[in-house]
User: Fold these one by one.
Assistant:
Number 1:
Amino acid sequence: MATTNEPLAQIALSCGMADQAHFSRLFRRLTGESPSHWRRRHSINDRG
């Protein structure tokens, strides 16, 4: 997620999740934050 601009919905499907909501719930349970928040914090595109 940190190295691509692929939509989270597509990433969810690629990971075998039923949909983005399922992916987001599981991701938050495992990491303590939403996928979009994690992506913003770890995105290499935002680094100078």
Number 2:
Amino acid sequence: MRSRLEAYFRFAEHQTNWRAEILAGFTTFITMAYIIFVNPAILSQTGMPLAAVTASTCLCAACGSILMGLLANYPLALAPGMGLNVYFTYTVVKGMGVAWQTALGAVFLSGILFLLLTIGGVRQRLVGAIPHQLHAAVAGGIGLFLAFVGLVNSGIIVRSSVTAVTLGDLHQHSTQLAIFGVLLISILQAYRVKASMLLGVLGTLALGILAHQVRYQPGRFRPMAIRSTALRLDLRGALHLNLFDIIFVFLFVDLFDNIGTLVAVAEQAGLIAEDHTIPRLNRIFLADATSTVVGALAGTSTVTSYIESSAGVAAGGRSGVTAITTGVLFLAAIFVAPVAGNIPSFATAPALILVGALMLKGTSSIEWNEPRVAIPAFLILITIPLSYSIATGLAFGLISFAVLEVATGGFRRRHWMLYLLAVLFLVRFLLVPPL
């Protein structure tokens, strides 16, 4: 039985083993655990019961991650997406006055459209149309994004009314602990310790406990509270003409955020084929679309692939076992959410910073001497972290790449869908409000 599972998950091909995959799954979960409390905190402002959203968040992250691991055999974990949950709450429900049940109906319809686009092969062609030279730029841009998020979460970098950002207060104990975490993980990586990310997070957490910087606030979570949001979506209201633009936003933003995350994680894990294609791409998209549909039925906003999966890849994850492990932990978190959610940001931020550093290694393959490639690559690298949006960075890169191809007479060198993508991104900037 064990040998059959190893064959199914292609352990020999990926040069991995059970220990590495399970450790990677733990690492991914630890870096994603914040979503257990952040997502409910945001969605509960719509009037959705907090306990119900907490349970649905854990359940959807578990189902999505396990499905991705079993169906597509990729180390990609899924959960309700940040950004889209903000749009759901502040733009759709609070801003437009749409009931949360109707907004869930819009999420459900966007998931159904995703399934149809996947079955029709449209999403796969969209990924194939992205020039492979830009794959490394997307990975690098997301790496910078992760590092920036980690620096902000740790307090090393803070907002400034004068210079936008500046150095934080290094006398803060939480910031000092985060710096310790960065140093600890760096030293472990210098010694080629595969579990450096996980050990670094746990080591920093342990020091934080000893320094009395971890405040445990137990809460009462009732898994069956999910009945307050499950199957409460209003499809009839979502089909109203005025909500088609909302459905479009959920569909459009998730589509390109997912493409960016997928390319980055696959590139980092070495899972992109020699012909620059991504194996089993249809299964990846089927898992993602199905998870969004399940999420809407359970009572949460759009479920999508998480770039924190890069932490698990950096820890050695290469197969679906990593995602399955993460999913099982999310399932367990339904019952122990206070423990999972109390992992402080100073313990997880160092992992984000150093994963970001690791993701930059692929940028050496970019043709920096060729302006047609170098300029779009640079725009991707700089706009992803500064705009806090993978989709926006990808848009800047593809639009500029398409313009340069046309301007230099290379129009026929590229697939027509590249130019369709560029036009769609322009439409996004013109019609879709920023998240």
